[in-house]
UniProtKB/TrEMBL annotation:
EC number: 5.3.1.24
InterPro entries cross-referenced by the UniProt entry: Aldolase_TIM (IPR013785), PRAI_dom (IPR001240), RibuloseP-bd_barrel (IPR011060), TrpF_fam (IPR044643)
One of the Pfam families matching this protein, by short name: PRAI
Record-annotated N-(5'phosphoribosyl) anthranilate isomerase (PRAI) domain positions: 4-194
Entry's transmembrane regions: none
Annotated source species: Lentzea fradiae
HAMAP family: PRAI (MF_00135)
Record-level GO BP terms: L-tryptophan biosynthetic process
Reaction(s) this enzyme catalyzes, per UniProt: N-(5-phospho-beta-D-ribosyl)anthranilate = 1-(2-carboxyphenylamino)-1-deoxy-D-ribulose 5-phosphate
GO molecular function: phosphoribosylanthranilate isomerase activity
Known pathway: Amino-acid biosynthesis; L-tryptophan biosynthesis; L-tryptophan from chorismate: step 3/5
Entry protein name: N-(5'-phosphoribosyl)anthranilate isomerase
Cross-referenced Gene3D superfamilies: Aldolase class I (3.20.20.70)
Protein family: Belongs to the TrpF family.
Gene assigned in the entry: trpF
Length: 198
């Protein structure tokens, strides 16, 4: 079970994520209570060992600008929220970072990993980063394939049942490991990783 902890903002957040065994850590570079600037992201990325994937999270900015942010911060992956068309993925193909296509389920949503040329698919609640749960049984009618992450309102308390029900390749969390909006709770980060893998 691949586990991504998102919205990290401090060096201690990063250290705890790595110690807890997370496979990926996310840095939000877009409007959010969790937003950090590219300089801080670059510093935090440099503190992450190579075996942990670093991910820059953006929403609704031009693909070229998103790519520049990924290069500036030195992340291993760029996570695109906000209905980016396939052309945006084509534009970013061949760069030295992976691409994560973040979507919410809707009519006609393509849930095949790689359909837009991405390396990873992330299926989230309609409001990314809100901590809102959504009806994951909707996946029963539109089952994803390949390397995909389940996100949206997960927590140490809910992740095991969600994994059993949805059978994702991995999971992603932000709000459920916070003590208040934008502030990571290090105990809950550890609990989440353990519960996801239990
Ligand atoms: O975290 C944010 O505030 C955010 C803002 C804008 C776009 C994406 C954002 N987060 C993306 C994530 O990867 C979250 O971890 C994912 O949506 C799950 O969030 P949560 O429901 O809070 O666990």
């Amino acid at each position: 079970m691949f586990v991504k902890l998102c919205g990290l903002r401090t060096e201690s957040d990063v250290a705890v994520a790595v110690e807890s065994g997370a496979d990926a850590v996310g840095f939000v570079l877009t409007a959010s209570p969790r937003r950090i600037d590219a300089d801080l992201a670059r510093t935090l990325v440099a503190a992450v060992p190579d075996h942990v994937l670093t991910v820059a999270v953006v929403r609704g900015i031009p693909a070229e600008e998103a790519g520049e942010l990924a290069l500036k911060t030195g992340v291993g992956a760029l996570q695109l929220h906000g209905d980016y068309p396939k052309e945006a993925f084509d534009e970013l193909a061949g760069q030295p970072f992976q691409l994560v296509r973040a979507i919410a389920l809707g009519p006609g949503t393509d849930v095949r990993t790689g359909a837009f040329g991405e390396d990873l698919l992330l299926i989230d609640s309609p409001v990314a980063g809100s901590g809102e749960q959504w009806d994951i049984t909707r996946l029963d009618e539109n089952r994803p394939t390949g390397r995909w992450l389940l996100a949206g309102g997960l927590s140490p308390e809910t992740v095991a049942n969600a994994v059993t029900a949805a059978r994702p390749w991995g999971v992603d969390v932000s709000s459920g490991i916070e003590s208040s909006r934008g502030v990571k709770d290090h105990g809950r980060m550890r609990e989440f990783v353990a519960a996801a893998r239990a």
